[in-house]
Amino acid sequence: MNFIKTFNYKDLIQGAAVTFKHQFKKTVTVQYPKQKLKPFPRFRGRLTLLKDENGEDKCVCCMACVRICPTQVIEIKPGKKEGRKTRYPEEYNFNMDRCIFCGLCVESCNFGAIKLNDEYELAQYSRKDFYFNKEKMYVPTPKVEYKK
Asked: Do residues 61 and 87 touch, judged by C-beta distance below 8 A?
């Protein structure tokens, strides 16, 4: 009986009003992983090599990205191809495990040969999956199938 005597209907109405007001607001969350947010334009995802319109590597092995990387996660072995005036990366190795996604490598590239893509699901089960060679740099990161 004490509870009924101290119960304030004004508080109940105020609480219901707040709940009712939020029912019609736009949602700010998504049902991940079924729904995914689009990253912001300046988002920094995984490093990706780019090709020109002829399908050739844009990278000319100037080594600017290697020199400026604070964690030294990029290794390039330059090569020379017949019929091409500039060098091309015979090997391009990237260790995403140690990358801090600072973007200095992209800013230092004067040829637009690399970019940080918009992938954000970068989790892997094995450390060796974080090592990317030249062939893996062109394709999206393989998705991990989560076990239930």
From this structure: yes
Tokens found for residue 23: 């029912």
The first and second tokens of residue 138, run together, are: 């062109």
Sheet with 74-79, side-by-side order of all strands: 74-79, 88-95, 131-132
What DSSP line would sit under 13-70, residue for residue?
HHHHHHHHHHHTSPP----TTTS-PPPPTT----EEE-B-TTS-B------HHHHH-T
Contact between 61 and 88 under an 8 Å Cβ cutoff? The reply is yes
CA distance 21 to 18: 5
Give the burial class of 65: count Cβ atoms within 10 A of its Cβ; 0-12 exposed, 13-18 middle, 19 or more buried.
buried
Q: Does residue 103 contact residue 114 with C-beta atoms inside 8 Å?
A: no
> Model's pTM, two decimal places?
0.73
pLDDT in tens, 28-86: 888 988 888 889 989 999 999 999 898 889 999 999 999 999 999 999 999 998 888 88
CA 110 to chain centre: 22
> Would you call 128 exposed, middle or buried from its count of C-beta atoms within 10 A (0-12, 13-18, 19+)?
exposed
Report cis status (omega within 30 of 0) of the bond before 33.
yes
